[in-house]
Structures are given as C-alpha cells and as structure tokens.
C-alpha cells in the first residue's frame, strides 16, 4: 500500500506519515506509529475518538492496523498537506505559500466548525487538546480537516 514506506509526507512526535494507495486507486495517508511500551491505550483512544466522527472538517479514518508493537492508522489523503506550511511559508520549493485573507478566513471558520462539532455535535463529545496548524490538514480546495486525535479525551 505504501510502496515500502518510500513516500514520506511528514514526521510527528508519535510516528511518521506516508503516502499510500488503496487497491481501488484511492490515495491515503498511513500514519505509522512509533513502537511503544504502552498497552495501546493511546492508539485505541485515537481510533475510538475519530471513528465516532463524521464531519466535513474532521479527517476521515479509513482503517487501522494493530498487532503487538506495530500500529498504523489509515486516513484520507489531504493533497495540500498541513496548514503550518502555509502559515509559516515553509514550501519545499522555497516559494511563498501565503494564502489570501478570504482563504484564511474560510479555513478559520472550518476549523471552528470542526471544533464545535467535536464539542457539541457528535454523539460522544470529544476534546482534542492538541489543536495547532500542524494538526489541520487541507484538501485540494483548502477545506480544513482536523487531525491527530492522539491526545483527545472522550
């Protein structure tokens, strides 16, 4: 699925994210979590939290892999990457990646709608505890999607 983990999209505190492709041709992001000595509670918390959500501003969990020390989460692919690359102008091509004010406003509104859904709208209220530009992903139309539910609480 990930072509032997060759196409790395990013690195976080809990593991790396790789680009993958499902058999039906759909692109995905595979978050391969670092080996841990924990009993998998954080991992299962993230799976439980995000699997209970369905909102345009929340990233969609498509599946997961859990076997002893190997754990991976499979998410929908967000082609524009994370918001921090646009806020801090960290383009890989060293070109400015600043967004127009209208786009920034729409992204802010989408993040607020996603948080409102997590706090009030879904059946199980979820507190994220780690909202930051790195954890907001953007689709091809710059629609923001909140991700990384590792520190969330039900």
Automatic annotation (TrEMBL):
The keyword Repeat does not apply. GO terms for molecular function: ATP binding; protein serine/threonine kinase activity. GO terms for cellular component: membrane. It is a single-pass type I membrane protein. It holds the Pfam family PK_Tyr_Ser-Thr. It comes from the Eukaryota. Its EC number is 2.7.11.1. It is found in: Membrane. It catalyses: L-seryl-[protein] + ATP = O-phospho-L-seryl-[protein] + ADP + H(+); L-threonyl-[protein] + ATP = O-phospho-L-threonyl-[protein] + ADP + H(+). Gene3D superfamilies: Phosphorylase Kinase, domain 1 (3.30.200.20), Transferase(Phosphotransferase) domain 1 (1.10.510.10). Keywords: ATP-binding, Glycoprotein, Kinase, Membrane, Nucleotide-binding, Serine/threonine-protein kinase, Signal, Transferase, Transmembrane, Transmembrane helix. Residues 3-154 form the Protein kinase domain. ATP binds at residue 31. Belongs to the protein kinase superfamily. This is non-specific serine/threonine protein kinase.
